[in-house]
Amino acid sequence: MKVKEIRVGDCMKREVVTLKEENTVMEAAKLMREKKIGSVVILKDDVPVGIATEGDITYKVVAEGKDPRKTLMKEIMHSKLKTVGPNEMIEKIAEILRDEGIKRLPVVNDKGKLIGIIGETDIIRISPGLYEIIRERTELENFGASELLSGNCEICGNYSEALKKSGGKLACEECIEEESV
Fold first, then answer.
1. Residue 177 pLDDT > 60
2. 130: helix, coil or strand?
3. I want to staple 116 with a disulfide (CB 3.0 to 4.6 A). Which of 12, 65, 121, 124 is the partner?
4. Which residue has better confidence, 91 or 70?
5. What is the structure's pLDDT at 143?
6. What separation in angstroms does the CA of 136 have from each of 25, 37, 115, 149?
7. How high is the pLDDT of residue 92?
C-alpha cells in the first residue's frame, strides 16, 4: 500500500477501552492503570458520547479534592466529542489533532458505533510516510509540466529519472504514453 493511501482504518487501534457515564472516576483510573492507557471513551447505548483522560482525573477530581469513588464519568468527561470515520485520510486527522489541540479521536462507522480510536502515537508510527506525502505534494504544486524529476512513478510504481506531471501525478514516460493511447 502506498503511503498516500493510508486511511484511519489502516492504522487505528481496534480495541478501545470504554466505560459508561455511570462508572466512577475510581473505576476509570484503575482500568487506565491496568491497561496502561491515557484515556477511556464513554459510551451511552453503544454510541460514544464523551472521552476522559488522565488529565481530566488529575485536574477535575484530584486537584479539586473530589472523591473519585463518588464522582461519575459524566461529570468529568469531554462531551463535545469529535469523531472520525475509518475512510478519512490520515493526513486530515493529523491536521485535526494539531489544530484542535487534542491527542486522540474515536473512530465510528456510518451508524455512529465505535469501531476504533486514532491518536498521535498511531500517526507518529507512520510519520515518515506523512512527511513524504507532504514533501511530494509540495513538489507537485511547485512542479512545472515541462520539468523532469527523478523518483517513483505514481501510476506504476517504477523508478524513473524522467518523471513528468500528468493528470496531477508524477508519471514515467511509459505511463504517460499508455494514458494517451
1. yes
2. helix
3. 12
4. 70
5. 53
6. 46, 35, 31, 11
7. 86
pTM: 0.66
Residue-level pLDDT at 41: 96
C-alpha 113/C-alpha 116 separation (Å) is: 9
Q: Does pLDDT of 134 surpass 50?
A: no
Q: Which CATH class is domain 3-125?
A: alpha beta
Report which residue type is found at 163.
Answer: L
